[in-house]
Protein 1
Amino acid sequence: MTDETLTVHNNTHTPLYRSFKIQMRVIGALLMREVLTRYGRHNIGFMWLFVEPMLFTLGVTALWSFAKMHHGSSMPIVAFAITGYSSVLLWRNMPSRCVGAVEPNLALMYHRNVKVIDVFAARILLEAAGATTSFIVLSTFFISIGWMRGPQDIIKILLGWFMTAWFGASLALLMGCLSERTEVVEKLWHPTSYLLFPLSGAAFMVDWLPPTFQKVVLCLPMVHGVEILREGYFGSQVHSHYNFTYMASVCLGLTVLALSQERYISKRVTPE
Amino acid sequence: MIQITDLVKRYHTRHGEVTVLDQVNFTVNPGEKIGIIGRNGSGKSTLIRLISGAEQPTSGTIRREMGVSWPLAFGGAFQGTLTGLDNLRFICRIYGATTEEKIPFVQEFSELGRYLKEPVKTYSSGMRSRLAFAISMAVEFDCFLIDEIIAVGDSRFHEKCRVELFEKRKDRAMIIVSHDPNFIKANCDKAAVLTAGRLHNFDRVEEALAYYQEHSATV
């Protein structure tokens, strides 16, 4: 044995720093593998990662423009659609990719350093990267051709985007783990995510709703994320309704629950 | 050294809890070759997976103080949709080894030539086992876990594997699982018999084989 890293990481008591290095290495390897298995090396290859969400967003933007989804408000429809639909892709794609993610990766878990959490982390990172790139490319494009005005408050946009990503990631980990415990989760996730879309704040501003309905809709954490994002984008042009503490508490709760479920299933996973 | 203490593994099944391994104890010293014999379904592969760390024990401890391989077997641990080369890259990345310097060896040993750039799912079973063995030898370990690995392949390839593993790496420790007494006799210094979830350790291979013969005759 000449390779010193191998000698050490096989020890039962691996120091924290080394564990972290190993985990980064494994997640990196899983990312590369995921990109290759999903997109291959044909045509535009890994660029599908953000071209696919871009096509979705463009299609939705076109449809909403024709349907005048902004309900006669003075809001510019392109910016409204792009901020809204990009956030939906951000929180929805991560759970969709994590549901049932363990089973096709079981063969890889023959390698001690490949853990359940790494498989989820790789998929979450990839989806977040895809949605984020799509959002940046599309808004830069539309701003440069003058169909969208520049953002008002970049920091607030980043905050809204980060909160939505945190919500998506914790939900993804939870759904991914629960789907490993019962198949019902996989069956229910698709209708649930579909039905949540119209309520998610992507296609409306909370301010446009009657007050009683506002209260109901604001129970959904992702509504707060897109409201923060739009306040950042449009500034005083819109009147946003959100509660940062509420959204952060929900995300924190989901994260803790998800990590506890991850612990449960990782003790029981059996490689193929 | 690998030290296994009071290892228990139970699985939940439809007909209740099944104890596959019950209070298993043994030690592997550097360079030692230990055979584990048991009939089909006796829990040999489960034991190998626990030692490798791919699965977690229900109770008991496994101390690994040397670099332990993944359970080497033909098949398993590969991605069919990836090419042979991408599988090699993945495994090298995971274990922190450099891929580029391993490619010539894998190419030469597996005799796959340009097929190394085709998806593994298009390989024949013989090609798969050649790739699997070549990749297994690309990363170095102090202790190799071998799960019936020599059972497949034609006699020429069989011989190549034997040289690579038992001659070039004769200084390494190995845990070899098999139901073939002759294979254990030819390659191991010590042996243990796994029956009904219990592991019976013997210092001499002959004693273990005698116990195994006797036991499998009566059951």
Note: The longest strand of chain B covers residues 16-28.
Protein 2
Amino acid sequence: MLNTLIKPVAPNMYRYDEFDAQFVTERVNQFAGQVARRLSGELTEDQFKPLRLMNGLYLQLHAYMLRIAVPYGTLSSKQMRKLAHIARTYDKNFGHFTTRTNLQFNWIKLVDVPKILRELADVEMHCIQTSGNCVRNVTADQFAGATDEEIEDPRPLAEIIRQWSSLHPEFVFLARKFKIAVGATEKDRAALQWHDMAVQIVKNAQGRVGYKVMAGGGMGRTPYVAHVMSEFVEREDILAYLEAVLRVYNQDSRRDNIHKQRIKILINTIGPEEMRRRVAREFEELKRMGTLQLPQDELDRITAYFAPPKFETGLPDTIPDAGPDFANWAATNVHKHKAPGYAIATITLKTPGQVPGDATSEQMDVIADLMDQFSVGEVRVTHEQNLVLPHVRKQDLPAIYAKLKELDFAAPNAGLITDIIACPGLDYCDLANARSIPIAQSIAKKFENLDRQHEIGELKIKISGCINACGHHHAGHIGILGVDKKGVEFYQLILGGSGAEDASIGEIMGPGFGEHEIADAVERVVNVYLKTRKPGERFLDTYRRLGMAPFKDAAYEKVAA
Amino acid sequence: MTKLIKSGAYAQDTFVPVADDAALPEGAVLVSLARFQKDREALLARNTPIGVKLQSSENPETLGADINHFSLIALEFPKFRDGRAFSWARMLRTRLGFTGEIRAVGDFLYDQVNYQHRVGFDAWEVPDNFTIEMFNHALTEMTNVYQPSSDGKKTIRELRAGK
């Protein structure tokens, strides 16, 4: 229920000016025209498809799916309430937070889309480039602006990239999709190296802040970790550099085989050295032209929108004692904040049994209330399909926990084995070969016991229902890939992947397991870890030390018997 | 049938497209890159305007210094989803400094005309039912832009700064 006593708080985040507002409004009208032409038959489905995709509209198994951009994962409470309203009015009362830190609705009617887009525009939101062969919604570290690990808040740059890439005339009909992420810490929470292009904010030897640019990461059927394109790009040159990479990609990528058209294929075909050479040539030319230079005053202007909130001083800097359940939750879901007395709180949308990433309208409304009451009106969406309250007072944590418990969003499992990423899978998706959600649910149920979860420690399970890898299975410590074998769903195990700063591509174990065997196989793999780990080792560390063999032997043991 | 749009109006196409194996007619001709390379000397000796039509896989840089001989470069969209020509047009207008006509031909949509205009196209071979009103509408659906391109249009950043 909407609590009318709670006063909405406007967080420090980017706010549209007249130009942004006009841009989005005109874009809505443009898309409304495209929808009308499709409904009248003027546009064929083949012609309409890339146009609707560029506006986040997919045709799925049962209905249209609309994907709403949450730029760099930052949402205000007002926006969250609008999403709840849209779910209630135009969908089946829930939405799904995705691994691109977006929100998607699965049951949308085409005729309603222009209306929904106008409602979104009212709260400075849109669906521009959330799908299709163009530059997608830019993602960032979910702890941006709150963690003391960062060189600076990565969101101002992400916003600058968002604007530059919006309806970029040269890059809206690329060979394939193009995903960009921005981070500013050594510890990588944004899976930078798995992106088509990533920017890491760094300091050079002279202490000057600039950007390390990587390109060519990607999942799908041919997984690659990104190559470094430049160790250090000066601040004012960053857009010129990113444009140079995209131009080389647009010109030189294959167009004859949809499976070989991502930038990762281009870079790994011509080699990173040749790619750097081609990019450098474009970059030098763009720099000479000077039209893409990013002036410091523009960077300052955008940065000012993201100014840190005014943190109270003199707050108690300890997490209150509020019982064992709360203590368990705080141990996994509360993270260090840069301001004394404050904390970052992760809300995992992963209570065992739940559909990972789903939230109902009612839950969204209550989270909006929590944002206003406890986190200066702000929340972050993470690529692990969780939400984060970025600025909460430690003394408020028990009250937040109590409220989350009512919502069934209080699972103390951030980063643990039941904090599973899963794509929508065959339950919704047109591309899927197998279901993901029930597998996530059965594994989460199997490991529901909290003591056991803590005993296992950090372990990231990521599940995809097909090789497109929306569930990031290549980057899971344990990845699971659903495949279809003569009409029966099978699940392959993939071990040793990582989406963090130690990024690695998981290795396929062997033949898949049946839907009723996979959770047991995971359990046997985990048991090998528990038996063989050295002190302080995570699952991933033990796997890297021992290799596949002992895990494989255990996983197939029972199946063979 | 197709029509040609230039400078916001229907225009007479003065170039005659010539198949690779056909004899060269009098006057301005539009040939493929292969034909140009094969009959380069003969074409240049004619002293009449020459246009070249590039496939989306053909990088305009391959024209080298010959670029100065062309009055028209037509960029082919084999399928509207193939967006390479957007970068080729941009390259022609910037790196290669081409000031002649860049014409969009092939399979492109109304919805792409504005992007083409921005990157440097200034002529469009359109179906008969593509009206001038549609063309003008396509160019005005979006008033402002976030990024610089070949059209030299002021960006939103410049407008914000009052430039």
Note: The longest helix of chain B spans residues 84-93.
